[in-house]
Amino acid sequence: MSEVYAVISGKGGVGKTTTAANLSIATAKEGKKTVVVDFDLGQRNLDMILGLENRVVYDITHVMDGEVNIKQALIKDKNQDNLYFLAASQTKDKTVLNEEKVEQLINMLKEEGFEFIFLDSPAGIESGFEHTILFADKAIIVVNPEVSSIRDSDRVIGLVDSKSKKAKEGKSVEKLLIINRINPELVDKGEMLTSEDILEILSIKLLGKVPEDKKVIDASNKGKPVILNPDSEAGNAYARIGKRLCGEDIPFADVESVKNQGILSKITGIFK
Amino acid sequence: MLVKQFTIRAFEINIESQEEFLDFFTKNREIIQKYFLIINGKVTENIKKILKEEKILFTVGTLKNNSFVKNCHIQEIKAVEEKESKIFNFPIRSGMEIKSNSDIILLKRANSASSIQTDGNFIALDTVEGKVECNGEFMFLKASPKALILFNGKDISSYLQKNSFFSITFEEGNIEIKEFKRGNK
Ligand SMILES: Nc1ncnc2c1ncn2[C@@H]1O[C@H](COP(=O)(O)OP(=O)(O)OP(=O)(O)O)[C@@H](O)[C@H]1O
Ligand SMILES: [Mg+2]
After folding, report:
1. A182, HSE (Cβ side, Cα atoms, 13 Å)
2. Structure confidence at residue A135 (pLDDT)
């Protein structure tokens, strides 16, 4: 059974592409045949984060225009069994997408037997966004713990409820929340929205919490997603989310409390 | 000289036939009684007599294109026909807009940057964080400090700055705001 996950957000730059890349590796590692598709046309960067940029010969528009078949355009990740990637076009922009072409493409991917199909979406304010939610079975909403991100995602959740094909057929698209870039020190100081606050406002199901982690940026630069780094807190969070997507019951780890700061700071703590 | 300012709630009614008007009048008497009528078309002796008996103030003419319309509250006749209340069992999210003539009942939150406008009453069982414009006679809600709550044209947000439910009523031009406490009678 194929499931189509649209990875979306209201505001840009909250971590959709990072999430799509890491989750696709996570489900592939769990043994599921997975494809991740860059739907952010004209602004492709999933290829870089996955370290596959020099392997892109054909992209999504070649397939949609019938110039090549889907098998030719799918790029198999050599370092990861079960993982495939379909690139966005860098030259053509979002106006080349239309409903019919997008539906055909998604059907082709389903026929290829992918169990997980992740669509990396442009931000909710941009054109082209509606195409990723149109044929999604589930939406993964990525937010940062700050008010503007929350409000914009709230609007986008409303769009999922009204614009997706499933919604129009009277069914509902499951909405799953990832809170990304949680900074324990700011939470501790009360300067950041807590997960409870965010869940209360958005009223959707929590899929996972990912801490702020400098290793993420470094990983993107190297084209080696952070999930492959066992020392990364964010990477481990993505691995847990992947397991949850595969049906495992993984409890939510505490990524919000400030970690043990070592003996020195403990001692100074006493004299505060 | 004494100057008084009133906000009048009025119906503008187009009378095409006496029969039709009287039928409408009998059906909606209770609501019409609370309004000032601006009547377009022929006011027959019969209509005049009935309006007088019911002590309903009216004038003949139209407010359309009149500059003072902006300042007074005109309720459309639709309000009378569409009375059933609307119940929302999902959160009203940012960017959503609801406009209605009937009572509105929210079972879930109304989030920041949502907008709800009604000429009926308004009841919300979860926090309201967006904008609510209610021109009915009754409101019941808990507003977040970020919310904008307008009741019959008046901004009452600052009176609701408390994490509890309030019941708010509009009677004869007066707004009464009461904090709702469990066990309140
Ligand atoms: N958990 C994290 N910790 C630290 N940095 C992060 C984290 N998640 C994402 N970032 C950084 O935030 C930036 C934006 O991430 P990303 O490109 O994934 O966002 P996006 O939502 O896809 O953006 P766009 O809307 O432009 O497509 C990147 O530089 C990324 O490395
Ligand atoms: Mg992106």
Report:
1. 25
2. 92
A31 three-state secondary structure: coil
Distance separating alpha carbons of residues A116 and A110, to the nearest angstrom: 9
User: Which segments of chain A have a pLDDT < 50?
Assistant: 263, 265-267, 269, 271-272
Residues of chain B contacting A201 with CB distance shorter than 8 Å = 109, 111-112, 129
Boundaries of every domain in chain B: 10-70, 75-180
Residue B65: what pLDDT?
A: 59
User: What is the rounded CA–CA span in Å between residue B10 and residue A42?
Assistant: 55
ipTM: 0.77
The CA B5 to ligand 2 mean position distance, Å, reads 57
Residue B42 to chain A, least CA–CA distance (Å)? 47
Instruction: Specify the pLDDT at position B77.
Output: 41
Fold adopted by A3-271: Rossmann fold (3.40.50)
How many interchain CB pairs under 8 A, A with B? 31
| Coil/strand/helix, residue B29 | helix
For A157, name the nearest residue in chain B, comparing CA atoms only.
Answer: B93
What chain A residue is nearest to B94 in terms of C-alpha separation?
Answer: A155
Q: Which CATH number fits domain B75-180: 2.160.20.70, 3.40.50.1820, 3.90.76.10, 2.40.50.140?
A: 2.160.20.70
- For A3-31, the pLDDT digits (tens) are 999 999 999 999 999 999 999 999 999 99
pTM over 0.90: no
Confidence (pLDDT) at A217: 94
Chain A residues with at least one Cβ partner in B under 8 Å:
147, 151-152, 154-155, 157-158, 161, 200-201, 203
CA–CA separation, A122 and A19 (whole Å): 13
- A234 C-beta closer than 6 A to ligand 1: yes
Taking CB atoms within 8 Å and a gap of at least 24, the contacts of A256-261 are A256/A182, A256/A184, A256/A187, A256/A194, A256/A195, A256/A209, A257/A184, A257/A187, A257/A188, A258/A184, A258/A185, A258/A188, A259/A184
* Cβ-Cβ contacts under 8 Å for A55 (sequence gap 6 or more): A47, A75
- In which residue ranges of chain B is pLDDT below 70? 6-7, 63-83, 183-185
